[in-house]
TrEMBL record, chains A, B, C, D:
One of its GO terms (cellular component) is cytosol. Its EC number is 4.3.2.2. GO terms for molecular function: (S)-2-(5-amino-1-(5-phospho-D-ribosyl)imidazole-4-carboxamido) succinate lyase (fumarate-forming) activity; N6-(1,2-dicarboxyethyl)AMP AMP-lyase (fumarate-forming) activity. It holds the Pfam family Lyase_1. It comes from the Bacteria. This is Adenylosuccinate lyase. Gene3D superfamilies: Fumarase/aspartase (C-terminal domain), Fumarase/aspartase (Central domain), Fumarase/aspartase (N-terminal domain). Keywords: Lyase, Purine biosynthesis. The keyword Lyase applies. NCBIfam families: purB. SMART domains: ADSL_C.
Length: 446, 446, 446, 446
């Protein structure tokens, strides 16, 4: 993910420094565990921990360069790190990584990084939820037109829109918690996962200290179905971002103008057209959603490794690991800020509700006719006829409102009272269930 | 999904007959609920139920043609069905669909179909799990070579391989249960989901009768993040199928020959080469996995509907709904049958273990040298040197085994006892933790 | 692709009858070629041709059932067909398929089917191009607002919009021609493609008769990079459909109302709201585009077959072959019809152009100030200030037009003549280059 | 793309310095063109060119910081650059960007960057082609087993394998040239592409100077179907890389050992198992192919921008532009190096050919029986029986070769001469057409 769409707090998780810090932690914890059951001298484990901690605390670009230098020869990243560590630790380094294989370190490290990233994403989701709840409570009874197919349907409230997105992001939070559990897994099982050279208690110890679960069967690697499920979840969340971003883009359209992204003092919308105020944040989020979604397929393709494992997943994960989490973190925080500052225009919303001459109340009139004993097919024909007559003359001098047209239709007049028709034109009906929905979504306190 | 890869039991769920049966059930239940709280006469609800049930029980191609005929005029599938139903029910049909919108019927029906499909898929997964468990128990101690990068690594057991796949499919079963919950949802909330014309109790009643949960906020449609999460899960399961299929394809390679798909009497492998016996089932599963995975992206793209909803998701779901579930059902049952009948060759496995002159034990020798006080770097150099010497002369007259080469290496001889070296060549070490893993995966009874 | 989105003319290409017809043609042509250079008796080739032609001409469900029956035993589709053919041809059938392998038949047949499908798609594209050209010529000078970010930018003509889509579909036609060339390839090279048992002249002969090119190197199969490139092209075309469909959906939005899909007499837009007229065709096309695009990834995954080939691509192609071509054919014809009948509202377009009080002319005013010697930064500030003042008061009693606001701004008044300002408010400027663009797109005759 | 998989020569194309250099070039060329037809004073154009060139030549981190600072206020990248440029150029800067819009600069710049990147990729492809040709010529007659389904089929030559991949990469080169043409396009057409404020001759001039074609209809942006087609092509090439990488991975499998990636002195294959030499380059390429393929879908999703354009494509392209080209450049160069140094083991290839007791010649025996007048069905049964008898006893003491089994089969003995059978066991037949194929692929000089 390019820096433009990255927050340092998330990129730091994927920095070499953090990676090496975690690698050492895994090795040091493993040594401690081995010392506990006698495979490694206690003093050696202590020396490794002390000197390693010091080396990592003082980790500098020079260390980075040294590791790269070793890797250039060995062509193996974990061996390069271990060799560097040996230079820092001294002879006791021969007790490091004893009976372990690189995957033990790499995969468990990835689990730690992904859980760190997920914890940040959970906070991001909380910020999005907070911004949506604020708008929902503020606009609980702000009447706005509901649209299906992009066509005015019936009135609803802007708060209900927000509540719907809130409910989706609340589901996304649950999904992310489940996804976190998928990848919060530790594997220290040695070559091809048989524990032939490393006691299973080491795995349990390291897992416990790192707040992870021990993998049931790790065929040297932690199975990639876990990571696939994780990246799928990020893709679902990204699509939820796209849905909300699309809503805002629509609301800000010049013909709609019901809401607008906050336009900063000094901001310029276009180099050529000074009048422009564009929904650039929500458009940007739409693109970011495409990117995050694009990581799903390679993550799924990573599942079918050959036999106990191959290494084809590695280059994929080195990219999509950071790209997906950094991108999603940025997108969620951008979304939270955007929704928090969203400028809403209730008068314009009401003007739009009324702009089609009342035909948006056709459904209630249909029901009134049905209640009056008219068949569905006849009632539909009558209402459709009056709605189309209204629609066709919208804005014209001889145009009549839907109510007026209905009032002149002989098939209507004899059958429904004028009061019933008047009542059918009232948007209040559409807010009647708002409380009930809010109770379900936000709890009774709302 | 073409018939070649379809089982009738699953395609039946997606047949017009089943769809109309469910549509009627939703409408009839809604009438019953409305009758309960007074919006519809009880007698009308009973008439609708009775005549509708009869019409659906007698549903024939003529009915299908009649519905198609009406749809050709109205260009609306639900209205076409309701009009047909009205012809069967008579005047009381004006109480059908009262205050509801098409999405109430369509989306709740899709939920019913997807839960029906999922219940079948759960049975399929059980069959796969059973076949894997059987092989795992049978070959718990069958020694085979573990491979990383496609290169012989260290011995393991064939049972452990099976246990690893079992554990993955057990996770997939858990995921599918969670996915079922995602889409087992009912929405009867009317236009733009405000319940303006339909009492929320109707939704609760119908949901309860259909074994679904009532949606929290349905903006006319059940939000598509639920379906996206569902199809993602199918994609993860498909990738698990691909992993196991890839394993079998590798094991059947002419150079490996450790296992083989059952070859039926009368079966022909190739029109040109009568000697061929090909792993066609697992190759086929590999392709099916690609197909099922390909449904994930359009499902994610379906999330961002415009405003309260548009209808762009419909054409997608009319295809991927059946394609993904029918395809996965077929694939899982094919996989279960394939694994159940898989022919395993333990002697060939052992021959392969031994085919590299013992270098697969290099890890244990490395540890032995480390225990003898040699640094990791020196020990590695020594072991690598002897392994390469062995490897290079494999099959040649003057070639020595890894054990023999080590026995002549002055850097080894002085430092490790011959008995330790002999012991390092023993595969038994790699099976020591099998019981422990089986306990985790299959429970103590294994 | 479900029947709902299928045209019989395209599905017929993928029917078993057409497939077997092509299989036979390939076998019969190969026999003729072999007869020509002596590998097969001329009489045998003639008998095969005559009896085979007759059998295919009389091909019935009974034949289909017989082939299925043989395949159930042999588990090999080409052998099943050859066995059935042998039953029809008699003893000379031993000269059929001589030295060939199934892939020779299957892959060459797929090439024939894909070229047949492509020829239909090219006709479809012509229909789309025709409908776009008609609208472009009709609305060459119909002023409409151009929008970037969904925000009114500057005026343009509706014809130019159409010309832009025309140019894209003209590019798509070129791409499809190139894609046709990719897959119009014949391979008759026997097992693993070495021509060990079949003279290369057979391939040349069959290719020539079928209007295909002979593959350079077919490793038993025609390499799947060709098919991947083909399905990519369909994905690009589908995305072009989505772009145009999205345009129409936007234009039909209730707040925009500049164009509308034709609404048929008797058509019903919603079961609950009789006033609804929805852009259901363009929404449907949006979904179909997602489907066709989804075939791209499995087609790319099909490229990396193992060694000389595996069979994992087969199940993918049995589905995406028909799905992508049938779906795209349906979508293109639906698009052509939709664009042909599109109802355009020029008055509404003009009303929208004027709806923002003239701020859409901010760019020209910016230039006028620059021409008057003001720096870009100052000019921008001045214009932006007046545009925002106009925008903020849109529709309010004390609101002024952009022209009015500019006329009162002391930083403007002293520097630009009123006539220049008036002139800047003229939309005619934006149509000045229309002729030039039309010449490039449609040729000078436009 | 992470630095690990990046070459500086390609990342430089995507650096801010190169981008700003191109932006300025476009603006300066546009000024020159405008000066030519009088819209801008010639002296101003010269000043802009001179001072701008100087500023860009001296471009430093301080300039980068200054541009970022302005963008932080204006929230518009092109305006930030223009403001910085104005600070360098002085008052004449008001003639910069006259009548243009940001997209003119951004899109034309992207075209320049993509063509620069493509030119590099074409060189990379040449290197791959060269490496493949070298191996093909060297191993033109190196007999190896051809495999379908991973099962030994019939002999072929290793050179033919290489020739097949060469032909695919030659096609990929053609495709990339076509893709280059797709995106080598310039647009300078102002807001919503009407040329209202900029003479079309400016576009022609700039296009000509930059070696691009002028876009036919640019609705402010260069239509994204062009870029979609471009990224599709990269996806096809990536899949070709995966196919070749998969071949190498298979050949290096421990049981196959027919070829091997070059193993460097000092290289270590595994931290735990010193005997390991893994095909890490080809595995890495497999993963990179997944990544590059994953850019195809977002590129396709970018096509359907709203109306004349939205900005959702921008965040996508800022990532996949560099990621796809940098990744593919790295992958191609890695592939070329890998294939150039590939270690091939002809003896092992021959050993594998012979490892199945001669059953790989079953096809020729089938033909011999057919020639002897036996029906296809009977001949198949006879040959299959003998092949299976051979296969089942492979490596066993009482096992017979295919030739031996045939020699004892009464259904064979009476019908085919022993000499014919002997001849059928000869691999030479399978190399007979090699010259012909080489002529087609490499030309007659090969």
């Amino acid at each position: 993910m390019v820096p433009r769409y990255s927050r340092p707090v998330m990129t730091a998780i994927w920095s070499p420094a953090n990676r090496y810090r975690i690698w050492f932690e895994i090795e040091a914890l493993a040594c401690e565990a081995m010392a506990e059951y006698g495979a490694v001298p206690k003093e050696a484990a202590e020396t490794i921990r002390a000197r390693g901690d010091a080396a990592l605390a003082a980790f500098s670009d020079a260390d980075l360069a040294r590791i790269d230098e070793i890797e250039a020869e060995t062509r193996h990243d974990v061996i390069a790190f271990l060799t560097w560590l040996a230079e820092k630790v001294g002879p006791d380094s021969r007790f490091v990584h004893l009976g372990m294989t690189s995957s033990d370190v790499l995969d468990t490290c990835l689990s730690v990084q992904l859980t760190q990233a997920t914890d940040l994403l959970l906070e991001d989701l909380d910020a999005v939820l907070e911004s949506l709840k604020t708008q929902a409570l503020k606009h609980k009874m702000t009447v706005t037109i509901g649209r299906s197919h992009g066509i005015h349907a019936e009135p609803t409230s802007f708060g209900l829109k927000m509540a719907g997105h809130y409910a989706e992001f609340a589901r996304n939070r649950e999904r992310l918690l489940a996804a976190r559990k998928e990848i919060a897994v530790c594997a220290i099982s040695g070559a091809v996962g048989t524990y032939a050279h490393v006691d299973p208690r080491v795995e349990e110890y390291v897992a416990d200290k790192l707040g992870l679960a021990a993998e049931d069967v790790s065929t040297q690697v932690i199975p990639r179905d876990r990571h696939a499920a994780f990246f799928c979840t990020l893709g679902v969340i990204a699509s939820g971002i796209e849905r909300l971003a699309t809503e805002v883009r629509h609301l800000q359209r010049s013909e709609v103008r019901e809401a607008e992204e906050f336009f900063h003092p000094g901001q310029k919308g276009s180099s050529a057209m000074p009048h422009k105020r564009n929904p650039v944040l929500s458009e940007n989020l739409t693109g970011l959603a495409r990117l995050i979604r694009s990581h799903v397929i390679p993550a799924l393709e990573n599942v079918a490794l050959w036999h106990e494992r191959d290494i084809s997943h590695s280059s994929v994960e080195r990219n999509i690991g950071p790209d997906a989490t950094v991108g999603l973190d940025f997108a969620l925080m951008r979304l939270a800020g955007m929704m928090e500052k969203l400028v809403v225009y209730p008068e314009r919303m009401m003007a739009n509700v009324e702009s089609l001459g009342g035909v948006v109340h056709s459904g209630e009139v249909l029901l009134a006719l049905a209640r009056a004993g008219i068949s569905r097919e006849d009632a539909y024909r009558i209402v459709q006829r009056n709605a189309m007559a209204t629609w066709t003359k919208l804005g014209e001098a001889d145009g009549l409102s839907f109510r007026e047209n209905l009032g002149r239709d002989p098939e209507v007049v004899g059958r429904i009272d004028a009061a019933v028709l008047d009542d059918a034109m009232d948007s209040a009906r559409h807010l009647a269930a708002v409380d009930r929905v809010y109770d379900k979504v936000f709890g009774t306190a709302s």
